[in-house]
């Protein structure tokens, strides 16, 4: 009788362990499906498999930054109505420890881009950006809005003055409005990195770099030399830096 009871208990324990393992696998599969959907829908994911047990929220700024008008369905876009609520949720969450911003953008709507940059800059959580491919035009303020910034060696940044497509009324008020927009952009960039306003405006008005246009292309280390980006590096460097910043913040609050 004793052996039979032991065998029954063993079978019951094995069955329980098997059920727990299956439930754990199902939970992992559901989590992966949810992550895949978030990446597909809004280009975001929470990184929480690291040894430090930090929860890092990843946001991608890709393609063209969309403003108040919808772009064509064939265009890769970053929608500010997706990014802004998520940033507010990150600030309100006790579970998110830091934010990683990956950029590969051609620029886009000035107002939307500045709104995203201002939101990132005002977060209390540690933030790091990484320029991959390019961060052009209004992507520059977003790249410098974080606490620390990286650019890969082949990454590019295009610095140019404000442009407007479509019909423009050629009156003084229009030019004054352009100047106000430009001052907002240069003021934000210069207050979040080491480049001076005079040097930034000099790069914007360079006529010998872009054919039939004005502006400057900075590649990798050139953006660091100009004081716009903090350091040349890749995803390994950006993630390691963010973990260090989270650890430092946690130690300071204890």
Describe the structure.
The structure is a single chain. Strands 1, 2, 3, 4, 5, 6 and 9 form a seven-stranded mixed beta sheet that branches. A two-stranded antiparallel sheet has the order 7-8. The longest helix is centred in the first third of the chain and has 41 residues, at 2-42. It contains eight helices and nine strands. The protein has helices spanning 2-42, 80-92, 110-121, 139-144, 172-191, 197-204, 221-225, 235-253; strands spanning 44-47, 56-66, 77-79, 98-108, 127-135, 148-151, 156-159, 216-219, 231-232. The protein is elongated and about 85 Å long. The termini are far apart. The protein has 254 residues and is of the alpha/beta class.
Q: Quick gist of this model?
A:
This protein has eight helices and nine strands. With 254 residues, the chain is α/β, with parallel strands linked by helices. Strands 1, 2, 3, 4, 5, 6 and 9 form a seven-stranded mixed beta sheet that branches. It has a two-stranded antiparallel sheet with strand order 7-8.
Number of helices: 8
Average pLDDT, rounded to a whole number, is: 83
Distance between the termini: 58 Å
The largest sheet, given as strand count, sense and whether it forms a barrel, is: 7 strands, mixed
Structural class: alpha/beta
Overall body shape: elongated
Low confidence ranges? none
SSE succession: HEEEHEHEHEEHHEHEH
CA-atom Rg in angstroms: 24 Å
Percent of residues in beta strands: 15-25%
β-strand number: 9
User: Roughly what percent helix?
Assistant: 40-55%
């Amino acid at each position: 009788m004793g052996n039979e009871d032991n065998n029954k208990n063993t079978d019951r324990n094995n069955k329980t362990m098997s059920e727990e393992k299956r439930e754990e696998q199902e939970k992992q599969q559901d989590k992966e499906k949810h992550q895949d959907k978030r990446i597909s829908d809004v280009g975001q994911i929470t990184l929480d498999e690291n040894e430090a047990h930090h929860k890092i929220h990843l946001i991608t700024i890709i393609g063209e930054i969309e403003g108040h008008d919808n772009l064509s369905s064939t265009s890769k876009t970053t929608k500010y109505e997706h990014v802004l609520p998520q940033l507010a949720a990150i600030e309100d969450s006790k579970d998110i420890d830091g934010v990683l911003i990956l950029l590969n953008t051609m620029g886009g709507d000035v107002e939307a881009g500045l709104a995203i940059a201002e939101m990132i800059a005002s977060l209390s959580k540690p933030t790091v950006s990484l320029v991959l491919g390019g961060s052009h035009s209004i992507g520059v303020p977003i790249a410098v809005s974080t606490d620390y910034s990286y650019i890969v060696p082949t990454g590019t940044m295009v610095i140019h003055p404000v442009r407007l497509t479509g019909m423009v009324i050629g009156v003084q008020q229009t030019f004054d409005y352009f100047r106000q927009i430009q001052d907002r952009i240069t003021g934000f960039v210069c207050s979040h990195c080491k480049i001076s306003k005079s040097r930034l405006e000099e790069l914007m008005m360079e006529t010998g770099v872009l054919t039939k246009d004005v502006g400057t292309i900075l590649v990798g280390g050139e953006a660091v030399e100009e004081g716009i980006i903090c350091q040349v590096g890749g995803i390994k460097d950006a993630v390691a830096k963010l973990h260090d910043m989270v650890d430092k913040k946690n130690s300071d609050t204890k």
